[in-house]
User: What shape does this take?
Amino acid sequence: MAELLGSKGHLSSLKRTKSGGIDIKNTFKLDSGEGWRSYAVSPEQALDFMPKIEWRGDFSYILNGRPLNLDIDGICALTYNQKIVAIVENTNGKTVYKKNLCNYYKDKF
Assistant: This one.
């Protein structure tokens, strides 16, 4: 198979040890009981590596997924009161929501 693909080797297993701001050293097995709560991280910790832009307008714009005019390049985390509330991307001059996290925070603002 490797020769058909123009290769001389293969991969028999792969273990991801780090992804973004999460490291395998800080993980646990799901069947380990209630201790998982001490390892839970906030969206800010999990997405620490991502560029951020602070929204200073009306929170309902984000909550309702209204179009935003942001000067961004590529994907970034949109924050409101320093909390990540959405992941957005600039596509063809328009800001597109990739993931809206407002339901996580809507009772806090």
Q: What stands out?
A: Strands lie at 18-19, 22-23, 52-54, 75-80, 83-91, 94-100.
